[in-house]
Q: What sequence folds into this?
């Protein structure tokens, strides 16, 4: 689709629409990237202009499926096993293990899990601690394509670039023909996969309450306004005393939240009051 077929104004209203519906934010510096991705998807869907595509997405009752495909084209699914490992270690040692030892069954949510490396990493650590059968783990993403890969359990070799202990992978990853890797079906069966839009309060609320929420390295793709809204949704989903973990490059300190910033073994997290 030629750039001349889409005015700056049309790209802007499409970007605003996508942000309203999904929370994904594209600033002026990202408009060329946004234009390229949306144009490719519009052409694949059979539209000759972005204005027609916009009207379809906004007003056609059957447009939800196409919006989901557009989201698949827009989201960044950069992830790998044991990313920001120290946080995962603290989740197991300081958040989950004490609850299990107290006779409780904690609920944990890996929000924006992309292709599933985060919940899989957490389960490997829980299994090593003998806790994997004592936890309810929900993993969600807005991208159906990413979730389909997560459910299938397929991993690329790049997912192994930050593994703290190769023995973990030897236990829980199955190597197939051509060096392909698949997460153990036993491990995948312990995860409840859900498609959730974090910007939609009702979708988040429908998941129920959690003792621990990991929402890491996704808030950077939201505007401050959307981040504040998403954090409110996540806070509401925490039980009293529950803990939220965001990415190490992300901070909630400039936002007014109902959560207190705490440090555990040199890892920062956000705790809801009791």
A:
């Amino acid at each position: 689709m030629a750039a001349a077929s889409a005015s700056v104004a049309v790209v802007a209203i499409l970007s605003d629409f996508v942000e309203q519906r999904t929370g994904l934010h594209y600033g002026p510096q990202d408009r060329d990237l946004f234009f390229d991705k949306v144009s490719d998807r519009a052409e694949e869907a059979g539209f000759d202009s972005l204005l027609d595509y916009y009207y379809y997405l906004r007003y056609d009752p059957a447009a939800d499926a196409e919006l989901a495909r557009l989201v698949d084209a827009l989201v960044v699914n950069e992830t790998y096993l044991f990313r920001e490992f120290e946080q995962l270690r603290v989740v197991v040692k300081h958040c989950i293990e004490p609850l299990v030892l107290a006779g409780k069954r904690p609920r944990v949510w890996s929000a924006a899990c992309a292709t599933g490396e985060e919940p899989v990493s957490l389960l490997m650590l829980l299994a090593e601690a003998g806790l994997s059968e004592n936890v309810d783990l929900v993993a969600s993403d807005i991208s159906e394509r990413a979730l389909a890969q997560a459910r299938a359990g397929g991993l690329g070799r790049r997912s192994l670039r930050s593994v703290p202990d190769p023995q973990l992978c030897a236990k829980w990853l199955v190597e197939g023909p051509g060096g392909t890797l698949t997460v153990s079906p036993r491990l995948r069966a312990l995860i409840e996969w859900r498609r959730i839009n974090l910007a939609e309060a009702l979708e988040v609320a429908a998941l129920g309450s959690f003792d621990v929420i990991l929402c890491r390295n996704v808030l950077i793709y939201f505007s401050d306004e959307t981040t504040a809204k998403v954090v409110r949704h996540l806070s509401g989903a925490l039980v009293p005393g529950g803990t939220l973990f965001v990415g190490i490059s992300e901070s909630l300190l400039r936002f007014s939240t109902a959560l207190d910033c705490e440090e555990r073994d040199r890892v920062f997290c956000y705790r809801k009051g009791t």
